[in-house]
UniProtKB/TrEMBL annotation:
Involved in the assembly of C/D box small nucleolar ribonucleoprotein (snoRNP) particles. Recruits the SWI/SNF complex to the core promoter of rRNA genes and enhances pre-rRNA transcription. Mediates interaction of TELO2 with the R2TP complex which is necessary for the stability of MTOR and SMG1. Positively regulates the assembly and activity of the mTORC1 complex. Residues 1-16 have a biased composition (Polar residues). Residues 1-21 are annotated as: Disordered. It comes from the Eukaryota. This is PIH1D1 isoform 2. PANTHER family: PIH1 DOMAIN-CONTAINING PROTEIN 1. The lineage of its organism: Eukaryota, Metazoa, Chordata, Craniata, Vertebrata. InterPro entries: PIH1/Kintoun_subfamily (IPR050734), PIH1_N (IPR012981). Pfam families: PIH1. Belongs to the PIH1 family. Residues 2-80 form the PIH1 N-terminal domain.
């Protein structure tokens, strides 16, 4: 257990650039998803729609959209109500 806690996968810190924000509501409150981008995160493989459909039918692990998700966190809105937010960092010009 001690070794598992000290062994971490190799990682690189990036400073994402702002993109856009998605806001949604539920009975539990508002949620904001901030979409950022960085040239440090590579784009997904360039495949045709037919190739993508074939990959998804055969093996869903065959196609991956590179991304990095930040930890969800709570903040207060202008009316002092809690919000939940998460960040998705992806390459500029990506999906």
């Amino acid at each position: 257990l001690q070794q598992a806690q000290t062994t971490r996968p190799e990682s690189t810190q990036i400073q994402p650039q702002p993109g856009f924000c998605i806001k949604t509501n539920s009975s539990e409150g508002k949620v904001f998803i901030n979409i950022c981008h960085s040239p440090s995160i590579p784009p997904p493989a360039d495949v045709t729609e037919e190739e993508l459909l074939q990959m998804l039918e055969e093996d869903q692990a065959g196609f991956r959209i590179p991304m990095s998700l930040g930890e969800p966190h709570a903040e207060l809105d202008a009316k002092q109500r809690f919000l939940a937010g998460a960040r998705d960092h992806h390459r500029q010009g990506g999906p």
